[in-house]
Batch of 3 targets.
Target 1
Amino acid sequence: MAVSRDIVVHPHPVLRKKASTVESIDARIRGVVEDMRRIARELDGIGIAAPQVGESLRIFLTCAHEGEPERVFINPRLEISGEGVLHDEGCLSLPDIRGEILRPVAARITALDLDGQEFTLESSAFLARVWQHEFDHLEGILIIDRMRPLDRLANRRAIRDLERAADPSRGR
């Protein structure tokens, strides 16, 4: 029986867990990736990580964007370098929440694809930022953890609304 996955939003606990290593790329993993693709398309995302569909697995994908093809990253290892640059970011798991996030400009990533083949990519473009954002999800880190205090303050009500929707007793 196929599992029907949907986007998971803050404060769901899976978003705060360090994701587990993928031991083998089987039908279950392929199903998770298919759901990630579908959800990213439906929500017009640039990338999505497995925890965002309720699966604590070290998988993310980046959608086709600015001439780059869609790619699946399984068990990625990320190296970041360069000066930090502020850029506006949002997140599918934090709807209507945006903020300026400081991230290093360059990244090198090594991962497995869906066929189990290892690959390495480097970028000092927008893609490096997307890798860092999605990798954060695998570590249980959200953009609200990286926001400057002013952006956090500006988003306080939206964050609280998400938390209340998950647990109505929080607002009392």
Target 2
Amino acid sequence: MGSMNVNAISDESRSSRAGTPRHSAGGDWRLEALIDRLPQRLGGAVSYLLQPKSRWVRIPAGVLLIGAGLLAFLPVLGIWMLPLGLALLAEDVPAFRSARSKVLDWIERRRPQWLRPPSQPNNPS
């Protein structure tokens, strides 16, 4: 019964992004949903890095993000860089893929609102 729900959400997510030019984020709709919640510039950069042709940029970027995340006690740098770096490296390091999948499973169970499309801000014209 739970798998039917996941498949329905998965199909809905894929159909809503059918016109999106970017490649699938590691083939996982949950990662795509999280990327869609990022600010437009950051989301575009992450989408670019997740494309197969960006491998030689993705690996150093992932390592730099992890290193900067470890220095989160400094101003500007933050702990948010760690999961983003690990998600980027998971594209190329099989050991990280299972960890990313477990984290995405946890998010799907515990924080399903994070996987919903972001609400549009009210823009008075």
Target 3
Amino acid sequence: MIDFLIYSGYLFLLINLILYTYSFFRKRKTNVFFISYLLFAFTMQVIMEFMYHLKFDNLLVLNIFVIGQMILLSLFYMSILKLKSQKKIVKISLCLVLLILSIQFFIDYKQFFKFNLFAITITSLSIVTFALLHFYNMLTEHKTYYYITIAVVFFMLGSTILYLVGNLTLSLSNDVKYLSWTFNAILFLIYQLFILYEWKVSFFKS
């Protein structure tokens, strides 16, 4: 069951990458930073999946993915936010988070090769904050990337909570761990479906 959910998520991620890339090159309608994020996410997922099947430790790749995801989604929201003050908030926050993580890795470089719950939490909450800034703007402006933003908020918050719970339940039964990863796979699939729906609503006929 969980394999079906995971590979379905990967499939829809690939579909989204193809569709958004098509809309960018043929119609110049989609955001280049969001396409870069989709490409980066798909590449990292494939690498982590291969490493998992080859029984290699993929935690280094996971940490690279978490940081790269924050950078690209931060640039995405910075590019669509209208107010200079909001863009400045994103820029300063991004630099601050990268500085904090750099200090952490400098003090203990082994954190790059571990399940870094701190990095996951701080990067996810940063992205959620930027998404909420965009939500605030959409109260009075045209709704752009509305469904993507909904998906980003719920996926980032949901997956972070599941990672926190999973970290607390490491000593519990495999059934509990399996349930946690199953919920995360479901969240990822829903996330990709929302992104697909955004393309249908915003770019399919435009």
